[in-house]
Task: structure prediction
Amino acid sequence: MTSYFSNLPIIAILAPFLGAFLVGLMGGRKKLLNVQRSIAIATTFTSFLSLIYLIKPVILDKYIVAYWMGNWKPESQWAIGIGLEVDAFSLFTALIIAAACFLSAIYSFKYMEEDNGLDKYYVLFQLLSASMIGFVLTGDVFNMYVMLEIMTFAAIALTSFRNHLYKSVEAGFKYIVIGSLGSSFILLGTILLYSQLHTLNLAQMAALLHGNYTPVSILALAFMLTGYAVKAFMVPCHTWPVDAHMAAPSSISMLLSGIMSKTGVYALVRILYMIYQSTGRPEMEFLIIFWGTITMLVGITMAVVQTDFKRLLAFSSVSQIGYIMVGFGVGLSVNKGVAVVGTMGALFHMLNHATFKSLLFLCAGAVLHQTGTTDLNKLGGLSKKMPYTTAFFIIGTLSISGIPPFNGFVSKWLIYQASFEAGYAPVTIIALMASVLTLASLIKVIQSVFFGQLKEEYKDVKEVPLFMRIPMMVLSAICIIVGVVPNFVSKYLIEPAAFSIYNIGNYIDVMFEKGYAAKMFKETVSIPSMDYTLAGYWNPLSWLILFMILLIALILFFSFGYKSSNNKVIDDLINTRYETFTGGEKEDYNHLGENDMFWGMRQDFGRYFRFIKGAHSGVVNDYVLWVVAACAIVTIYLFTLM
Amino acid sequence: MLLNYIGSFLIIILGLYITIVKKNLIKIVIGMSLMDSGINLLLISIGFRQGGTAPIFMSDLKPGAFFVDPVPQALTLTSIVIGACVTALALSLVIKIKAHYGSIDADKVRRLNG
Amino acid sequence: MKKNIIIKNSIIKSCANITLPIALILGIYVILHGHLSPGGGFQGGVLIAGAVAIVFTAYGYKEVLSLFNAERAKTFEDIGALGYVFLGTLGLIYGYTFCTNVLWHSTPGKLYSSGTIFWMNFAVGYKVLAGLGFLIIMLVSNLYQTSEYEDEEEK
Amino acid sequence: MEALKTLLPQIFYVLIFPGFLFCFIFGLFLSGIDRKMVARMQRRIGPPIMQPFYDFFKLVGKDHIIPRKASKKVFLLAPIFGLISIVIIALFIPIFGFTFQNNTADIIVILYLITIPALSLVVGGSSSGSPFASIGISREMVTMLSYELPLVMIFLAIGRKAGAAINGNVTFSLADISKYQSMSGIMISKWALIPAAIAFLLIIPAEVGTVPFDVAEAETEICEGPLVEYSGLYLGIYKLTQAVKMFIMGSLFVALFFGGSGFSNIYLNIILMIVAVIITIVLSVSFVRSVLGRLKVEQTLKFFWTVPTALSAISLILVYLKF
Result:
């Protein structure tokens, strides 16, 4: 039992907690600031490293690590202690989280240097990282709730960290109201489930609830679904993250949007696939796919009409969660082959969304850091001043819109295929349209932030320092590498995770003893046979070689033209033929703000856009009402159909 | 016992009602903590058993005595802590909002919309 | 907001004078007997932190601020948390799992009989009394210092 | 030596036959035919068929100017990426059963690769910093949005139709679609897919950017929109991309609706393909172009989201009902 890896999960959770308290102990002394920064980087790196060491046993050897706190092992097959359980799916999510936290810690080094109270920032940051890792590694429902609460508090405090800005405070308040409402629902669901099963252990719950649905457990399911939907930004519970992402420092927006949403998705998957074992239930499949599609559509249409850089990214994040949930919804299908494609697409999209959305938020942070605003109407023409950020942002844009050979393509394609094969053709169409709209909304950002006319006040803007560029570099490298070798990634990361989602019997057996699941289920629990043939991978390597050949040939050919034009621009300052053609207008009047973009579309769908913008009224009460209404609808749906 | 369950759900619904209807931010916070209290009551009621003793192994335990369920009590404690934190954090944010907006009316604190 | 109201009520004061030591003693008792009786570190910590609230109701916020140091409370909270983590890690160091009871060697029912659990309770109690105390101090001082606070805002 | 043996044909494919050279020659040739046809329909003599070649080489010979406001690298790289991606599509399109690249999901790859030239136009135009280009790119994005919806539905209908026969579910592989057509007759002979074919013919002009739907480049209103600052070689590349796109869309139409086993001889197949593509382009581009005037941008959106979308939706529903 006590192998070298058995203690690694707790170390991964413990290191950032320890770091948080250490930083708190040091207090706000200016001299120790660098020490605090190094501690944050070191602890997040420690947890990342310990999770990497877990890859070999958990993912490659398909071993599930069970860890009982305080050595309180199950007494006569009844869990009495708090357990950690790490299977490939947990580890997959935890790896994404730990890597992103590490990158965010590096990014914060320079990004946050102008703020004061940085000791508090680092305490909260490490609490956030630790609780997110703990959330996905734990095998106990109530522990999940506690970790979720630590996460929520740290995130709220970080959202309103820059409390001299009105938007931070308002976003923080909305977050705490809606977030704690979601937490309350989760707690309510958990205790209702406890009242039926008298256990809090995930594995044991799964074993006891098998084929044992009662009204209480269905009510619990409704509450838990809504509660975790709040954490995973599913429409209509998507109102807080938008404000929060906009107001938080970008290093935190990255974690909130790219990573924290994944914890909600993780919990939803655990509830649906593990506790309630809804695989093969068409009504659950329909609910999740429908919910995901609504999320996708509302998120992206709101993103198109936004005027704030980070708010736009946040809404696009909401729509990406819709993709993930559609994938997981298809994963509940009766048809095993299709289900596997859906699950794999969703898992792949979790990874990809974490990378490119983090990248985009870091770019937004770079712009905010250098110019001090994220209003699309005020910015413009930064590409000459910040060439690296522009390049990274374009890579992120291409990835998120799924342009091959970047990573978004692979996962989006798997999701399209899965949803179409499962017989949800309208969903596929909406997903493809949402992809184009994503591109359109981000093109708007590219046009109005990086290209277009440079404003007078941004004349002296410089490129961001190296410490902020490194995380962006790493993330864009991941975007490209994952897109180029998707086969490798899915074989060594996605497939084991998808397998472990379906392999419930083993999950239960490892926690208790061999044969426990079979005893409780009163049937032999077979290891699910996974059929990956329908997921016929896109193999870009073959034509990527050709792509490279062409690229090299063309670039060699045209580089002469490029070179010869190089000098003229610089020395020929008087010649008016190098001026942009404006049709005689003065430059101050011809900047096309983002408001004017896509007016053709807004004219035709004006009624829809006015309605949807008006619905996001900004009043907390309305948002709470939405969440409660969602809960009511889910409850009614589940009670009528289950 | 039934009364407890009905009461707890009533309190939860009352909390939700306050959160949805009242425009005063402090009242919204009150609604949130009311909902927390309802959940706590539900938790404790779930763990309660008629005639049970405190769940501690002592030597003077009578034969045939049984415990109330200790787990919900522990959960309630955790939940209370979290509720206290929610209230404290939310109130501090309300103070900040008052400083920025000059009002604690939910209809006026809506600059982030659309 | 009502400002500058100095609470001078002799009934409250004399009641507080009686209850304050009781609260403290009871809190310490609950912390130390966490493994033997209902309660534990958290409840005891809350009881002790309640003392801050008692001082506030009886003597007003100035007294609270002069008696308690918020910065130090913050530090103490971290020390408590670190102590808990350290005690938990003892299990790892001794080769068991996290939070394993490694010091246990006594008869049940005695005060010092539970090994690490006793010290963990102590650490939790320490953390909670510091943390909640800090919370109350902060709320109290915010209540009376909004004007100062707005000045900060303008900077 | 082994690697060279596999690599040499690949290089041949990329650079010579379905790839770069072939696309270059045939695309410009097709563009010449189109111009000639339009001229004849308007009772003009029209330019010689080789005119696009002359235009292209003239543009290559000219000096190119990079505006001071433009961000240079993006400005110069965008057209190249557009051209590469459109040439790569040529490798995916089967010529009557003969494919160069075989993927399980080349339809979706094509769907995305087709957007890259439009995207390169958008990014390149945007990087030039011209206000006309900004208006142009917003129009280009709206056009793209408008034709993407029916295009997606057409692809899904065809994939469903072919997949139901091949593997019982759905296929996104052009090779499978080609196989299906050689098994049970060309796609256009299925009643269910005739609306989809009409919708596809309506999409081709918007995809290529010719007259009724060339809102993005409207010369009279916004001076060629995104292309306003381009000159010389890079303008030539854009024009070439447009011509190649015409060829690609035509051959995609042929592969999707008129595919099949063809002749046993590959050369005959190629000639058949070329003839079919010319007919398609004349039908869908030249006729429409010579008759209609330019639409407004919101009219484009309204048109595409009503008529072609409805047509392709009918197809999709009919396919699902197993007609």
Q: What stands out?
A: The mean pLDDT of chain D is 79.
